# Entry
Amino acid sequence: MIRVFEPWTSPSDVLEVNKALIKKQISGSSTYIGKLEEKFKQFIGMKYGIAVSNGSVALDLALQTLDLDENDEIILPAFSIISCLSSIIRTGAKPVFSDVDKKTWNITLDEIKKLKSSRTKGVLVVHTYGLPAEIDEISKYCKENNLFLIEDTAEAHGIKIGNKYCGSYGDLSTFSFYANKHITSGEGGMILTNNKDFYKKIIQMRNLDFKASNRFVHDNFYWNYRISGLQAALAFSQIDNVEKIIKKKQQQARVYNDLFKNNAEIITPEKSFREIKNNYWVYGIVLKKDGIRDELMERLYKKNIETRPFFWPLHLQPAYREQVSEDIALLPVSENLGKNGLYLPMGAHINKKIQKKIVKSIENTLAEITK
Ligand SMILES: Cc1ncc(COP(=O)(O)O)c(C=O)c1O
# Structure
């Protein structure tokens, strides 16, 4: 089976994790956690970092920090992962879904402006699949309109706009270090902020509201969102490799782009947004013909090629529809991506020969299905 992803790990990763183990720095109070936070916040260019157990939890904590209630609205892209929606739902605030741009698959300032109301408290921006959103403009707009900006940078480690990294724009920026991310700790995440009050609050929220004195007397029912020392040691080491990993993915994407260049049935990802190159967190393709994506994926799987469907639009999630069904807008771009998009194998196990085999199989299978 050609799996959809396998991570790149280096000998230094192995050494660093072993060091943590030998020094018995493995728990959620390991010195590696502070080391990771320090290195990562400096890499992205923010004042405070809080490492947590995954990227979904990072979003949860970011949203919980804002003290939202049912009178508040948060604008978010409909084309994204469920964690974005569920973190808003858990605050009690109302999610307001934006469609995404046809080419970049990202939320845009124009859509945000259309959706802003007197209840809007913030905007959750996601940099999707390898291209940055127009975060510079969105960030200015949020400042001018007194809106919180939450920047989900799970898929955009190492993307720079001018000399500023994605993840340095949000009032709260969140990251995932899941195994398929450009920097990984297997499972893990991070919140970055320049706001000291947010930082202090999240530190408490991450760790059961334990305090320096009276440790077991709690003012709040917080939870345990800690990352372990072993995971932190891996992410700490992985930060050094991010540029190399992005280059390898861009190289694999160039091969796919070339192999698909004469294919009229498939839309390949945009190579760049303005001057900024796609870093191909995933290599996603969209089928022009409606309604055959699932069959293509099933047949490829039988031929030992694993693929993944694109995100299913958040406004159509069964978990959400049950709660509110009457105010669902039609969001055609997100819906088309959700129905007809899939992403292809990339990673440490892939080479040009395998990519040729994958593309040949896709083309043959499409011919079988549509004949
Ligand atoms: C945009 C985005 N946000 C959040 C997450 C959640 O991260 P995790 O899997 O670490 O919980 C992901 C995961 O892929 C993601 O793509």
Remarks:
- The chain has two domains: 5-241, 242-370.
- The two ends are 26 Å apart (CA to CA).
